[in-house]
Amino acid sequence: MKSFGIGRMVALAGVAVGAFISVSGVASAQCARTILKCGCTITAGGLFTLGNPVANSASGAGDCIAIRAKNVVLNLNGYSITGPSNGTAKGSGVHILKSASGAFVEGLGATISGWANGVETESTNGTIDNIVTGSNDKAGVFLFKANNNHVTRISADGNGQFGIFVSASAQNDIAASEASDNGADGVLVGCIANSTGGCAVQSKPSNSNDVYAVASDNNGRDGIAVQFNSNRNNVANCSASGNTRFDMDDRHPNGCALDQWFANSFTTASRTCIQ
Description:
By secondary structure, the chain is mainly β. The protein contains two helices and 22 strands.
């Protein structure tokens, strides 16, 4: 089990919005239908396919593949997308922008590592499926102001802070996934915190999300957690063990508020309403 000190917990609680969102700017180069290198943006709908493993080892690397258009299908074809892996990346391996509703990113087992976030989405009505998102600086999968998305069959292990982070987002499904050995929480549903524990100005709570059939073990803080300011979230048929603080944690001050936890398997929990 990892050692995770109180000072580290406080530092993570006050992560700034800008520290999580990709800040590199979107690449001006347009992606070809077969993508062969990092540093392009998809600006038209339809099918795009990764044609070989791609990497960007430059310090401060921006997004590898950004999606701006609606109704894009991106087939990663099982290939790897590798960032600088030195803590300097400013972008994500795959970044789904707000304008890109209806995106379908199919990994076929692709590995995304070494970025600020493995996959980042700010959009709606999308699907992210079958991707290994490990060893990224912040989160394996980061949802920010993203609604009505399906995130399935993700292996989000060994990331610097979170396996899967759902922030200021609603009505998303996180399912059939694994989030273990991350620096803070395996799965966190809530918001980007300010220094006092509330939501940062640009962020807000996450409501009405479903987390089910997720395994989350040996994380540095909690296995699966819902922040105190987020409600109507359902956590079901999940398993968690060996996490440093709690396997399952509802951070509301009194009980679980309007969250529902049921049919889960765990050793430690913060509330008796977690079942």
